[in-house]
Amino acid sequence: MENKKKTAAATLLSAALFCALIAASSLSPLSEWGRNANQFNSPGMWLAMAIVFILYIVPLSMYMAGFAWMKYVMAVCCALGLLSFLFTLVVAIVAGMVSGTTLQFIGVLGVCSLAMAVNISWFFIALGSKEKRSASVINM
Predict the structure, then answer these.
(1) How far apart are CA 41 and CA 114, in angstroms?
(2) How confident is the model at residue 129 (pLDDT cuts 50, 70, 90)?
(3) Cα 5 to Cα 19: distance, rounded to the nearest angstrom
(4) pTM above the 0.70 mark?
(5) Going by C-beta distance under 8 Å and a sequence separation of 6 or more, which residues neighbour residue 96?
(6) How many CA atoms lie within 13 A of 58 on its CB side?
(7) Rounded distance between C-alpha atoms, residue 31 and residue 25, angstroms
(8) What does the pLDDT look like over 35-70, one tens digit per residue?
(9) Taken in order 6, 1, 81, 16, is the CA torsion positive or negative?
């Protein structure tokens, strides 16, 4: 049960950082790219945050309700989130270097870096090491 609490905490932190990335992106020059880009405090930004939060909460709720296999679905989602954070980080770095406004992307870069660290640690928290899993099977 302790592992479920740690997994839930890491998942909620990842969700919060994803929402923070949406807000940071809407405050950066990225919000000026394309007509569908979210502006800060727009209905689109809040809708994007709500969708992200729902996409995190539904699998987490199922996992906490006892569907142990949801941990692996969440792991796939975590890997996809990790890739999206990495992609956003690269885009922000390249856009900042090309436009000469790297400092305007500092919020996006910071949130992406922190979110990537949280998502990587999520794998260790949720899945653990083989030694830890085999020790828990032996103790049963």
Answers:
(1) 23
(2) low
(3) 21
(4) yes
(5) 102, 103, 104, 105, 109
(6) 7
(7) 6
(8) 777 788 888 889 999 999 999 999 999 999 999 899
(9) negative
